[in-house]
């Protein structure tokens, strides 16, 4: 069925005669998309791409050339890179003006000619990162006229070492072809940088080469979160989005967490299945079922400095945050493109002074006011930023990127039957409404295990199972996002609170 374009949205049109031999080709630029009709093209006779999927447009020697990523088919969500070219004899001026308009619209609010550092973890997830680099990532960066340096990580914490020494004005983006562990390493490397706050502002963009790829899922959504091409396009076209980062302290050691802190079942199902990386994210389902059989409790004392704990109120907070983010994106996309390194002579360096890492201001004191306490065996405790922790688990549906809160789930013990039931609808956040699941938005919390029989996972990496404290730092790091907010919808009407 032919795509219908609303005439009111048309910005510019072009029709040329000599594309694919003698067949005509039609191009329409609208407020939000690029439409291309090439009836003789065997694979993509008709394309309607949102402007964020348009990578380049120009005329060269009488040829109009457009690069765009397009959904491979109606059934498959994955994006494919498509180069469209057509001779524009007799219409050179018109075609140039059309290409200029497309390029301007496609990069509104976004820098062109980015210089990107690509860190590739060859052992992440199913081990295909190198192939992704060559087959999908490099062609998209080339099409978008980005330059890049690629580093294959050679050992554990290699990304940490790179981030610690990173020259801050050199790269526009660090893209990581790996899972969430590499982002954890980079942020902790930044924390050890001579200018840690400036380093943390370097935009990061995950490209999903790992197992869970939770950050990529949160940024791009369930449909595109595992799509290497969609994530690469985000590295090119995404808008900087501030995100909160948590300090995690154990004694006098301090490290940083951008995503999750887990103890009990949720830590064990992650750290206890690392040898099963080849299974991709199925290893987490296996880990959950194994935990169900073991049916272990995790006795801990939890102290929480909560900002919100009413589930309805948190939902309103979420909707207000989403609406504010949507407005910010409209404003950013409406702005002219920022000054570009490759295009402009006058690029001013940001100030070299750095305020240093934020101090810890919410340390726990026994008996201090404003802290809630739990002291009982739990199934798990999970703190985190970002709604999805895996494709099948929308654990923090109320999470907003920079609201200054870490979301905390304290899950009471469940029977095996209840544990099985909790799997149903977990991918859409149904567990949020369970009475046994306590949900908080907190500025800080502390966990004291009563035994050593579990593990602590921070952003999916193993840490000593000892008392730890977590404190949030608002908007400390920067990620790239097409939407300015997590692209995960918590659908309330479908998932009503059980009466
Ligand atoms: N060449 C290498 N050899 C061994 N380990 C490496 C190498 N490069 C990186 N690493 C380590 O690989 C670990 C796993 O990385 P990462 O978490 O990104 O992938 P994953 O665990 O497969 O995915 P996810 O976090 O999405 O589940 C990190 O701890 C990192 O330090």
From TrEMBL:
UniProt protein name: DAGKc domain-containing protein
MF terms (GO), sorted A to Z: lipid kinase activity; phosphotransferase activity, alcohol group as acceptor
GO biological process: sphingosine biosynthetic process
One GO cellular component term noted in the UniProt record for this chain: cytoplasm
Domain DAGKc: 111-252
């Amino acid at each position: 069925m032919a795509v219908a374009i609303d005439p009111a949205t048309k910005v510019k049109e072009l029709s040329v005669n000599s594309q694919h031999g003698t067949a005509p080709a039609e191009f329409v630029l609208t407020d939000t998309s690029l439409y291309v009709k090439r009836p003789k093209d065997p694979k993509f006779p008709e394309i309607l791409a949102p402007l964020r999927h348009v990578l380049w447009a120009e005329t060269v020697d009488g040829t109009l050339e457009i690069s765009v990523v397009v959904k491979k088919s109606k059934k498959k969500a994955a994006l494919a890179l498509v180069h469209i070219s057509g001779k524009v004899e007799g219409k050179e001026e018109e075609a140039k003006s059309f290409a200029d308009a497309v390029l301007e619209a496609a990069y509104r609010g976004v820098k062109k000619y980015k210089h990107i550092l690509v860190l590739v973890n060859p052992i992440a997830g199913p081990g295909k990162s190198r192939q992704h680099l060559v087959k999908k990532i490099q062609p998209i960066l080339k099409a978008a006229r980005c330059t890049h340096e690629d580093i294959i990580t050679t050992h554990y914490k290699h990304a940490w070492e790179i981030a610690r020494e990173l020259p801050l004005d050199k790269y526009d983006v660090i893209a990581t072809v790996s899972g969430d562990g590499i982002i954890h390493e980079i942020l902790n490397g930044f924390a050890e940088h001579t200018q840690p706050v400036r380093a943390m502002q370097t935009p990061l963009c995950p490209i999903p080469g790992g197992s869970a790829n939770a950050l990529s899922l949160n940024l791009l959504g369930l449909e595109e979160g595992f799509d290497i091409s969609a994530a690469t396009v985000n590295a090119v076209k995404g808008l900087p989005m501030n995100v909160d980062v948590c300090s995690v302290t154990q004694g006098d050691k301090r490290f940083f967490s951008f995503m999750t802190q887990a103890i009990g079942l949720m830590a064990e199902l992650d750290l206890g299945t690392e040898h099963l990386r080849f299974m991709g994210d199925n290893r987490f389902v296996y880990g959950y079922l194994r935990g169900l059989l073991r049916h272990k409790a995790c006795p801990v004392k939890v102290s929480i400095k909560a900002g919100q704990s009413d589930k309805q109120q948190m939902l309103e907070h979420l909707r207000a945050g989403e609406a504010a983010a949507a407005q910010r994106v409209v404003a950013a996309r409406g702005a002219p493109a920022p000054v570009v390194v490759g295009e402009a002579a006058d690029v001013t360096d940001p100030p070299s002074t750095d305020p240093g890492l934020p101090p810890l201001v919410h340390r726990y004191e026994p008996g201090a006011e404003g802290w809630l306490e739990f002291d009982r065996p739990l199934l798990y405790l999970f703190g985190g930023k970002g709604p999805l922790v895996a494709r099948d688990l929308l654990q923090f549906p109320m999470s907003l990127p920079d609201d200054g809160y870490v979301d905390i789930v304290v899950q009471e013990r469940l029977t095996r039957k209840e544990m099985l039931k909790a799997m149903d609808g977990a991918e859409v956040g149904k567990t949020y409404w369970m009475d046994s699941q306590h949900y908080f938005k907190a500025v800080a919390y502390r966990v004291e295990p009563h035994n050593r029989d579990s593990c602590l996972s921070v952003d999916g990496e193993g840490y000593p199972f000892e008392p730890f404290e977590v404190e949030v730092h608002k908007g400390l790091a920067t990620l790239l996002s097409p939407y300015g907010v997590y692209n995960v919808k918590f659908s309330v009407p479908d998932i009503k609170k059980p009466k």
